[in-house]
Amino acid sequence: MRIVKLHKSNLMSFLEEISQESELWAPVKKYEDKHIFKNIEDFDQIDLDYTRTILPPKKLLFPPSFRMYEATPKKFHADFSHISKKTLFGVHPCDIHGLLIMEQFFKQSYEDPYFSEARKNLTIIGHSCWPDEHCLCRSTQTHIVEEGYDLFFTDLDKNYLVWIGSSHGDDLIQLKPDIFDEDVTEKDIQQFMRWREERDKAFQSEIQFEAMPDLMELKLGDSVWEELGEACLACGSCTSVCPTCNCYNVRDNPVLGKEASDITRCWDACTLENYSAVAGGENFREKKSDRLKLWYTHKLQAFISKYGKPACVGCGRCVATCPVDINIKTVAQSLQGEKVDAFWRRLNQEVTQ
Amino acid sequence: MKKDKVKIGIYELTGCAGDALLILDCEKELIDIFSAADIQSFAMAKSDNIDGPLDIALVEGSVTTEREIEEIKDIRQRAKIVVAIGLCATVGGIQGRYKPHSVWEADYKSVYGETEMTHTKPIQSQPIDAYIEVDYYLPGCPIGKDQFLNFFTRMLGGNPPEKYPQPVCVSCKHNENDCLLTKGEFCLGPLTADGCGAICINHNLPCVGCWGPIEGANYTSEYHLLKEKGFDPEFIKKKLANFSGTKIGKLIESIEKERP
Ligand code: SF4
Ligand code: SF4
Ligand code: SF4
Ligand code: SF4
């Protein structure tokens, strides 16, 4: 690992250089207070002053819907045409951790060729951030990164400190070596340490993730799950926006006038009613409470037992997204026996009155 | 025309004819449609219609007159498979908006008075499955082109159509829209079948529910959520009922009392 320095005035020329070689994706303001990762056509669109995008960067490796192959009764042609060389600039640490978890999943026992091919073609350039009231990444220990990026930019006023995380990252530096300064001074280091300390203090939310596997086990029969199930709209939004949710469905779309079918892969969500429906009309998780239990068992218990860390990277997207306030924060608070300010709790009080 | 082709009839009861028009609007594919199947009856497209035995009947519109009851029963009797297409046939449509029968009678009187109907007797509008058994449902207001072509091709191959069990929120999030509901707007996306690709929210307009309700839609939670956001209870119930059809309407009446 090597760290170099870049004066901010040189950032755009560096990105321009990169965009000669691959598509450049970066955060762009879509709404007054919401950003998305977008393919950049106009460099002025890039807006690094963001906290979280609506969808996490998983959409670049695993789009919401794409054609996997064209099938006829006799053969099939794999379709990788949705994959192109991309550079994603401006990714925050939680999302880098999210991508690492995705990678772990898609490579665990059977390597998914679509994911691997897309990952091979993706360059990841991280960027430092500042937490808002929903960020939980310090609790999940995903507020800093040690791997999973090619370059990582830390914003220090006039300069960036640039971590080089891979040999490809080093190649990128070599595209414009004169704008990078090898000489990181003691002053820079002091400034970085101060920045780190202040950022650590800026977190407003905290969850005791270490206690979660036990709490989940102890409270699997708790009435809170019914309460959550009654409020849940089964809209699937939490699952779509979560950077570590990876479930998908495969659909057969026959083409009129042809013998062939388009086989598409699209995101699925365990919070949706049809997710657990099987042949014969059975559904083994028909109740919303059971589906939410599954979601939270995955995030807070099962993954921890298997990999030693939660399948939550603390990005706060579920907190910002769920219309009825069912999210990692309110659910953990409730499991911890704390007071919860959420619509799902108020609904329960109103309906049982 | 070859004998072994799948015999299809396309019928319109009471509705805006939008679904039949949508089929006709598949201009690029029309030749494929007409050459892949034997279209026996399609009043909007041709005049030489035959009312004989069918493999598949596609029925648009709700049942709103006594004559339509006879018509739908006749179609059922002639067709091996009956598919309800569009909101009106599947749940009742706007004209099949839930109302207690006495309220409907009073409304009817206030519009038509004592005028005698000579053609056929009007009745309170109902989706077609109020009178016959329906094999498949294709929701939409109107149905979509891709949806129809996918359905049509599957049926020709002897495969059942896809279901539409997911709410509009799924496409809405995939399109990275800002959630209007969390912003305090009246959005019915969580209750509504996704087939339109969240087209309204893509244009920053809330979903009014025109594709009809999904199975298991959580009306109670959405109702209380909208109430908490400051909407008037009567207004919410009216808007919820607009596209929800006859069956779900009862639930809306009792929403405040009932637990989900
Ligand atoms: S559970 Fe919520 S906070 Fe955790 S990673 Fe998923 S969306 Fe982000
Ligand atoms: S928990 Fe919230 S976001 Fe997730 S499906 Fe339920 S209502 Fe939708
Ligand atoms: S805007 Fe409407 S359809 Fe979209 S996610 Fe929000 S509630 Fe669902
Ligand atoms: S009202 Fe809802 S279901 Fe109808 S087109 Fe608009 S978003 Fe789709």
Describe how the helices and strands are arranged.
The complex is a heterodimer of chains A (353) and B (260).
Chain A: E1 2-7, H1 11-21, E2 23-31, E3 34-39, H2 58-61, E4 65-71, E5 76-78, E6 86-91, H3 93-107, H4 113-120, E7 122-127, E8 151-156, E9 159-164, H5 167-175, E10 180-181, H6 186-201, H7 212-218, H8 224-231, H9 237-241, E11 248-254, E12 261-267, E13 277-278, E14 282-283, H10 288-307, H11 317-321, H12 328-335, H13 343-352
Parallel strand pairs in A: 2-6, 6-7, 7-8
Antiparallel strand pairs in A: 1-9, 1-10, 2-3, 4-5, 4-12, 8-9, 11-12, 13-14
Helix pairs in contact in A: 7-10, 8-10, 8-13
Chain B: E1 6-12, H1 18-24, H2 30-36, E2 37-42, E3 54-60, E4 63-65, H3 66-78, E5 79-85, H4 86-90, H5 101-112, E6 122-126, E7 136-138, H6 145-156, H7 168-174, H8 199-202, H9 219-228, H10 233-242, H11 245-253
Parallel strand pairs in B: 1-2, 1-3, 3-5, 5-7
Antiparallel strand pairs in B: 4-6
Helix pairs in contact in B: 9-10, 10-11
